[in-house]
Amino acid sequence: MRKYIAEFLGTFMLVFFGTGSVVYSAATTPSPLTIALAFGLALTVGIYAFGHISGGHFNPAVSLAMAIQKRLSWVEFVGYVIAQLLGAIVASLAVFGGVSAYLKSPTVAQALSGQKITVTQFINLAGLGQTNFADGETISAFIFELVLTFLFVLVISIVTKLANVPAPIVIGLLLTVLMIVALPITGGAFNPARALAPVLFVKGSALGHVWVYLVADLLGGALAAFAANFFNKDVKETA
After folding, report:
1. Which of 5, 30, 127, 136 has CB atoms 3.0–4.6 Å from 25's, for a disulfide?
2. How far is the C-alpha of 127 from the C-alpha of 99, rounded, in Å?
3. Which spans are transmembrane here (predicted)?
4. What span, in angstroms and rounded, lies between the C-alpha atoms of 165 and 161?
5. pLDDT at residue 27 tops 50
């Protein structure tokens, strides 16, 4: 149970701080670097805090890769995914709950020049930090998410087996870099739980596009597992 709670909390942190950085900067033109750093730093802190308990996956694609590599049982995999999905959904609910207070802040009041906007109007306009891509770009978005998730999970699978390597920092920095590249194209999910949770509370094309992230990210994680087995043949487990 401790492992599942750790995965819930770590995923909550990742989604809350990451998507929160998008939503709560909507009135002041969010910076891609700030958003990417929010996700990367949240992941780094989460791994340092909970990695010794659950491994610090916070991502069904990572958990799938670990199960394929036999570093996680399939029973645990199911529990991890449930915990991750719940953590992401609760995080999106928390971000949604904070919108009302955000709309009353001086920053928003100044940006709107005193005009009133409801929570529903704001969510319809700014969203909840959901990932999305332009209509007609399904194939390119699929390939983009697939390739970058593959690289992300492959690096995780390798560095978490290396001794004397600060894996949480490497993983967090990698997520930051990947997001800077992917933000204008797909939003940079690389994580089915992170992609699914926000779209459950918003309208528009994002809900219709979410299957791309679910399939591409899980497939990328699975392919990374087989590649990692090849690269990790002679690598000893870290203590």
Report:
1. 30
2. 10
3. 35-56, 77-103, 139-160, 167-190, 210-231
4. 9
5. yes
Note the pLDDT of residue 1.
Answer: 92
Q: What is the pLDDT of residue 104?
A: 82
pLDDT at 239: 38
139 close to 192: Cβ distance less than 8 angstroms: no
Residue 118, classed as helix, strand or coil, is coil
Which stretch, 28-42, 57-71, 201-215, has highest mean pLDDT? 57-71
- The C-alpha atoms of residue 195 and residue 184 are separated, in whole angstroms, by 15
Domain extent for 194: 2-231
Q: Is the dihedral of CA 53, 58, 62, 64 positive or negative?
A: positive
Q: pTM to 2 decimals?
A: 0.92
* Predicted pLDDT at 9: 98
Number of domains in the chain: 1
- 6: domain CATH number? 1.20.1080.10
Structure tokens at 28: 């002041």
Q: Mind listing the pLDDT tens digit for each residue in 127-156?
A: 899 999 999 899 999 999 999 999 999 999
On whether residue 237 sits in a domain, the answer given is no
Q: Within a domain: residue 236?
A: no
> CA of 74: how far to CAs of 8, 54, 80, 145, 197, in Å?
18, 14, 10, 24, 23
Q: Which residues contact 169 (CB under 8 A, 6 or more apart)?
A: 44
Residue 69 domain-assigned?
A: yes
Alpha-carbon distance 200 to 210, whole Å? 10
How many other β-carbons are positioned within 10 Å of the β-carbon of residue 116? 8
Instruction: Kindly state whether residue 92 falls inside one of the protein's structural domains.
Output: yes
Q: CB neighbours of 48 closer than 8 A, spacing ≥ 6? A: 56, 168
